[in-house]
Write a structure and sequence with these properties.
The protein contains eight helices and nine strands. It is α/β, with parallel strands linked by helices. The protein has two domains: about 35 residues; about 220 residues, SGNH hydrolase (Rossmann fold), CATH 3.40.50.1110. Helix 5 runs parallel beside helix 6. The protein is globular, with a radius of gyration of 22 Å. The termini are far apart.
C-alpha cells in the first residue's frame, strides 16, 4: 500500500468522529504527509548556489536572482528614493566573480544594518571600509556584502562558512546582531529567521537568556575557528550590549555600536553612523594587519 492510499484510509476512518477531533487528525496527517514528501535540504552545504532562472525565492531566505526594489521614504520633509539591487546570488552586492591573484576579497555579513537598509550602497560601512582599504593596497578590492535584513547570528556564522568556500575571501568583517534571534526550519523545510517582537513562535517558550548566549558563543567559536583555520583577517563588532560584555577583551573586536535611526527610512542607522563603523573597523584592521596588507 502506498502513502496516498494510507492517507485516504486514515481520513475515511474519521468520518464518524466528532468534527473538531476529525479536523485535528486530518491536519496532523496532512502535516506528516508534507514532511514525508519534502526532500531534506542541507542549509549548511559548503557553498552558496545561484538562484534558478525562474527568480523564485530560494529556501534559505535570500532574495531572487537580480531582484530590484525601489522604495520611497519621507525624510526631513523630502521624498528619498532608495534602490535595492541584488546580484545573481540574491545579495545586495557587486557581482561575485571568480577570484584572481590580483583580487583582495572582502566579505561582509550581518543583518539589516550591514545590508544598508534605508541607505544607498555607497554609504554602507562595508563600502566605506573597502574604499579605505583600496587606498592601502595595490590589489583590486572586491566588496562582497552578503548581509540579509532581519537575520540572526546563526545566519552570520553560516554565511561566513559558506562565503569562505564560495568566494575565497581575504578579509571578513561583520556586526553580530541581537542574541535572541535565531534560524528555524519549519514543517515545509523552509528556513526562517525568528525575531522576538515580530514572530510569535512556540520556540520562545524553550529558550532563555543563558541559552541565547550559549547559542551566540557557538556561533562565535565557529567563526573564530574558521578564520584562524583559513588564515583570514577579520574584524567584528556587535549591536547587543550583553554580547559586548562577552567579547570586549577579544583582539579583533571593534566594540558595541550604539544605534540611531537617521537612515532615510527613519528606522536604521544613518550615514554618519556607518562612517563611524567603517572607521572603527578600518582602524582595527590597520592595528592588526597593516604590515601584512
Amino acid at each position: 500500500m502506498n502513502w496516498t492510499e494510507t492517507i485516504s484510509q486514515i481520513i475515511n476512518g474519521t468520518k464518524d468522529l466528532d468534527a473538531g477531533l476529525r479536523d485535528i487528525i486530518i491536519a496532523s496527517v496532512k502535516r506528516t504527509q508534507r514532511s514525508y514528501n519534502s526532500q531534506p535540504i542541507n542549509y549548511w552545504a559548503p557553498t552558496f548556489v545561484k538562484h534558478d532562472d525562474d527568480n523564485t525565492h530560494y529556501k534559505d531566505g535570500r532574495y531572487p536572482s537580480n531582484h530590484c526594489e525601489i522604495k520611497k521614504f519621507k525624510h526631513n520633509n523630502e521624498t528619498i528614493e532608495i534602490r535595492y539591487d541584488h546580484n545573481a546570488y540574491g545579495f545586495r552586492s557587486d557581482e561575485m566573480l571568480e577570484k584572481t591573484d590580483n583580487d583582495l576579497v572582502v566579505v561582509t555579513t550581518g543583518d539589516s544594518i550591514t545590508y544598508g537598509q534605508g541607505l544607498n550602497v555607497e554609504y554602507r560601512y562595508s563600502d566605506l571600509f573597502c574604499k579605505k582599504l583600496q587606498q592601502n593596497t595595490k590589489k583590486v578590492v572586491k566588496n562582497y556584502n552578503i548581509a540579509m535584513p532581519g537575520h540572526s547570528n546563526d545566519y552570520i556564522s553560516r554565511s561566513i562558512y559558506q562565503g569562505i568556500h564560495t568566494f575565497r575571501p581575504d578579509v571578513i568583517i561583520f556586526l553580530f546582531t541581537f542574541r535572541n534571534r535565531l534560524e528555524w526550519v519549519n514543517e515545509t523545510n523552509q528556513l526562517q529567521q525568528i525575531v522576538p517582537g515580530f514572530d510569535d513562535h512556540t520556540i520562545f517558550n524553550l529558550i532563555n537568556e543563558d541559552w541565547s548566549m550559549y547559542n551566540f558563543f557557538k556561533n562565535f567559536v565557529l567563526i573564530d575557528t574558521l578564520c584562524r583555520l583559513y588564515n583570514l583577517k577579520f574584524c567584528f563588532g556587535s549591536l547587543d550590549p550583553v554580547i559586548a560584555e562577552g567579547m570586549c577583551q577579544h583582539t579583533n573586536y571593534i566594540g558595541n555600536i550604539e544605534l540611531d535611526n537617521l537612515a532615510y527610512d527613519n528606522e536604521h542607522p544613518g550615514i554618519e553612523k556607518h562612517k563611524e563603523i567603517a572607521n572603527k573597523t578600518y582602524n582595527k584592521y590597520i592595528e592588526l594587519y597593516d604590515k601584512e596588507t
